[in-house]
Amino acid sequence: MGDRARTPTLTALLCLGLCRGPCDQVQAGAAPKPSIWADPGPMVSRGSPMTIWCQGSLQADVYHLYKDRVSKPLDTEAPQNSSKKAGFSIESMSTHTAGVYQCAYHSRRKGWSERSDPLLLVVTGVYPAPSLSAHPSHVVTSGGNVSLSCSSEVTGDTFYLLKEGGAGPPRQMQSRTFRGRWQAVFSVGPMNASHGGTYRCYYNSSSYPHTWSYPSNPLHLEVTGVYREPSLSAQPGSLVFSGDNLTLQCRSGAGFDRFALTKDEGLTSPQHLHGQHSPYFPLGHVSHTHGGQYRCYSGHNLSHAWSAPSDPLDILIVAPSPQDYTVENLIRMGGAALILVVLGILLFQARDSPGRLEDAARRGYDPTSWRRKYI
Ligand SMILES: *[C@@H]1O[C@H](CO)[C@@H](O)[C@H](O)[C@H]1NC(C)=O
Ligand SMILES: *[C@@H]1O[C@H](CO)[C@@H](O)[C@H](O)[C@H]1NC(C)=O
Ligand SMILES: *[C@@H]1O[C@H](CO)[C@@H](O)[C@H](O)[C@H]1NC(C)=O
Ligand SMILES: *[C@@H]1O[C@H](CO)[C@@H](O)[C@H](O)[C@H]1NC(C)=O
Ligand SMILES: *[C@@H]1O[C@H](CO)[C@@H](O)[C@H](O)[C@H]1NC(C)=O
Ligand SMILES: *[C@@H]1O[C@H](CO)[C@@H](O)[C@H](O)[C@H]1NC(C)=O
């Protein structure tokens, strides 16, 4: 028991004595290489804190951090709470802390480990943001293609395209000048549901290595034609009078909880899809500007995949025509004239023979009586 406890200590003492300095070379590979990662991630905005983690073995007694393949360690840390990892924290990310990091650990039994794989730490927010746009539209039919163009007024070296939550390295492309701007055009497609999402682009520059611009505006790529088309209907109907209260409803299978309505977009992909949670689109009291061809799409909450467009629904707004007004007015005027004539006659009769007016009113007016009498 005592012997077993003493042996590693002795080994460690021997090793510590022997391995100072040239240890890396002499004992490389003796212990398995550690893994290295960045928390919250390998891209950090300038001024933000972050931590580089190095995970080796439970036997490790010290961890070293190396930067840019320099042989002298940048930092040294003891394992945290006797766990098998150590954290190197950077309080504020800057152009100087960006770079390629590696780590290694020492254990009493096996000496120095090999160095980890390199971890590239990029600092963002160093140059002005580029702008990202989609051509022909950010709404793309499944199977179609789209070009995402990232451009900047400032000299960019390489442009990067990143998808939010996307796995794998960012796509990158050498910049070109176009109409006085620096730009790169990434083609995406043929599209399927997994291409839908939020994209941003960045560029690096020759000023400092591993320093990137601010992120571009986010671009939401929506993919249509992923699900079966819904159907669109109108209440009270598709032929309504100007001023009527019109509501459109997008009906689809169960499980869909996002709906979008488009107007007069033809069969090409619409320029925009504004999703809402209700399948009802109240248009309120409509006017002639509401007339046109509508289509709707259904999708899922927090997803960028949509159904095919519904069959088109033509909404016709009928204004009460000037002819209708004329006829209506003629009837009204005719009615008014008739009443005047009748009143006039009654008055005339009343003046002729006082007391008969009351009788006539009591009996109700009989049109045949005056005809008999006066014509
Ligand atoms: C390490 O110790 C700190 C407090 O000293 C504690 O908050 C943390 O949870 C511990 N970590 C592990 C992995 O045990
Ligand atoms: C999309 O691009 C691919 C090549 O990248 C091409 O084969 C395909 O025909 C294109 N699809 C459409 C709809 O243009
Ligand atoms: C979408 O297309 C990519 C290739 O562009 C492919 O790797 C992926 O498996 C496809 N996803 C689906 C859901 O079909
Ligand atoms: C920009 O990034 C590309 C690709 O990662 C790299 O080849 C290039 O050297 C970088 N430019 C600078 C100035 O660091
Ligand atoms: C239109 O009708 C809907 C019901 O169909 C009703 O909820 C809404 O309040 C009406 N709007 C107006 C402006 O009358
Ligand atoms: C959509 O998802 C978000 C986040 O998961 C949730 O808060 C929201 O209630 C969802 N909306 C609907 C209508 O399901």
From TrEMBL:
Record key words, sorted: Disulfide bond, Immunoglobulin domain, Signal
Domain Ig-like: 130-201
Signal sequence annotation: 1-25
Keyword Phosphoprotein attached: no
Pfam families per UniProt: ig (PF00047), Ig_2 (PF13895)
Gene Ontology annotations of biological process type: cell surface receptor signaling pathway
InterPro entries referenced in this protein's UniProt entry, alphabetically: Ig-like_dom (IPR007110), Ig-like_dom_sf (IPR036179), Ig-like_fold (IPR013783), Ig-like_Receptors_ImmuneReg (IPR050412), Ig_sub (IPR003599), Ig_sub2 (IPR003598), Immunoglobulin_dom (IPR013151)
Keyword Cytoplasm appears in the UniProt entry: no
Gene3D superfamilies assigned: Immunoglobulins
Source organism, top-level taxon: Eukaryota
PANTHER family in the cross-refs: IG-LIKE DOMAIN-CONTAINING PROTEIN, MHC CLASS I NK CELL RECEPTOR
Protein name as it appears in the record: Ig-like domain-containing protein
Gene symbol of the encoding locus: LOC100054075
